[in-house]
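Re: the request from the purification team.
They wanted to know what the chain is likely to look like in 3D before they choose a buffer screen. I agreed to run a prediction and write the result into the notebook, where they can find it.
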Amino acid sequence: MSEIGGEEKRGWFGRLKAGLSRSAGQLGSSIGALFTKRKLDQDALDELEETLIQADLGITTAGKIVAAIAKDRFEKDITAEEIRAALAESVADLLRPVEQPLAFDAALPGPQVILVVGVNGVGKTTTIGKIASRLRDEGKSVMLAAGDTFRAAAVEQLKIWGERTGAPVLSRETGADAAGLAYDALAEARAKQIDVLLVDTAGRLHNKADLMAELAKIVRVMKKLDPAAPHNVLLVLDATTGQNALNQVATFREICAVTGLVVTKLDGTARGGVLVAIADKFGLPVHFVGVGEQAADLQPFAAEAFARALAGLEQPPAA
């Protein structure tokens, strides 16, 4: 089994750090104001915890991080730089268990089916295109299924990515049955011996039971052709939604057995810390993070790099 992803491209940490600059700036300015020639006493810890909560790390996760920072430093003099380093270390420790590349199993009898889900506007279609681009660069054959049959714009966007990546796109008329399209796409991908089938879906409002039931139907229908399909269910989350992303994970995981996460739009928010809260609460693999519109702006998740960028520190030392 190989990994979909591989080495980080040169310069990725710089883009990641730039993308997280708003999140890091908010944290850094607060930490700088708190720790100017100060002991790490209980008042300081309480203020630090509040700062982390405001940065969308969540109450429970913030408490864990503060406890870890205080363990060997309580009542000792500490600088803002030392706090940032300790923060990065604690965050990295929480994130390492979810740093798992998306794996590709060459031994599968048919295509590896990756179902991409999420609410409206999180960037599912763009994420599919970027993953397809990575896969094609690695020499894998890819097919795209335009399962968002209610939005003509989504179909057109996927077709554009198909042209860019040389991947065929299966689509139907507006309003067509998405489950039927997914079934047809899997049948065609099997017939053509495609390596990976990426299935787009409409933006599902996480509090709409009927729409979520339709998503569950897509899964059931594909299993008629391949009981193991979909092999991956990727939930795309928009970092700008902050703590609401936690609700989305809980809901989608119940409906369609989410296997991994992609976190997008980290470059447009000061709420990048929500990724830490999600990882701590759910423990789901985080396969990719996105900080821009270009294909190269979606990269495999790296715990230490993310933690250091969030804390406003420089690139982690080479192993």
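For the purification team: The radius of gyration is 21 Å.
Please add any questions underneath this entry.
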